Amino acid sequence: MKINENTLLEGNKVVLVPYNAEHVPKYHEWMKSPELQQLTASEPLTLEQEYDMQRSWREDNDKCTFIILDKQQWADSSVEEEQCMVGDVNIFLTDPTDPTLAELEIMIAEPSHRGKGIGNEVTRMMMSYGVTKLGVKTFEAKIGLNNQVSIAMFKKLHFQEVSVCEVFKEVTLGMTVDESVRSRLLEDTADMKERDYRQTCSNRREQVPQ
Ligand SMILES: CC(C)(COP(=O)(O)OP(=O)(O)OC[C@H]1O[C@@H](n2cnc3c(N)ncnc32)[C@H](O)[C@@H]1OP(=O)(O)O)[C@@H](O)C(=O)NCCC(=O)NCCS
């Protein structure tokens, strides 16, 4: 999606930036992990295919992706952005007849960064972005039945079971964004700041000691 190609979202623990070609090598390394392939129901791709995928995430109107950066590391301008990457978060508009329905996916790829509240914060930030910028009214998350951590996280965020597919061993959790959900989301993410991505990168480069 083009809408977020120059958007940076800053939260308390994380910074979300658009998925660029420079992020692909690290992303590709992550996705070699059999554990991540299994947890995210993904097939391994070649580096070339991963670049194609990055381009399609950028260009296609039904996909919105951010790379998750560790804010503490990113705050040190001498640390390369790629070194701060910890995962990604996506919204897919899955139904061409209903642009208000979005599938949400999140991955904290770096195991050392799991269990620290990052998934929770990023999911709320992405939902808030989806509601305010993309007009999303219903979120769904498809999760492997054995992925208890992800199921627990979405349930804690008030998602409810929509259906279970025994064939794919997958549960669909969903949430409709009514007025009270919207207010809670906006309240939870009131500290989130939206910045110009390219400008922020260039400011960061200028701060690096020569
Ligand atoms: C699932 C995932 C996104 C959660 O993100 P996270 O940053 O580790 O989770 P958080 O620390 O924000 O915790 C959020 C909630 O998840 C649940 N949770 C987190 N770690 C857990 C654990 N080890 N056991 C059980 N529940 C856990 C809890 O409900 C927690 O809420 P609480 O801290 O208020 O109790 C992350 O672990 C991940 O990306 N894992 C690998 C890929 C994956 O499974 N992606 C999801 C595909 S659908």
Automatic annotation (TrEMBL):
InterPro entries xref list: Acyl_CoA_acyltransferase, GNAT_dom, NAT9-like
Keywords noted in UniProt: Acyltransferase, Transferase
Organism domain of life: Eukaryota
GO molecular function term, any single one: tubulin N-terminal-methionine acetyltransferase activity
EC number: 2.3.1.308
Catalytic activity: N-terminal L-methionyl-[tubulin] + acetyl-CoA = N-terminal N(alpha)-acetyl-L-methionyl-[tubulin] + CoA + H(+)
Domain N-acetyltransferase: 34-197
Name of a matching Pfam family: Acetyltransf_3
Protein family (similarity comment): Belongs to the acetyltransferase family. GNAT subfamily.
Role played: N-acetyltransferase that mediates the acetylation of the N-terminal residues of alpha- and beta-tubulin.
Protein name (record): Alpha/beta-tubulin-N-acetyltransferase 9
Lineage: Eukaryota, Metazoa, Chordata, Craniata, Vertebrata
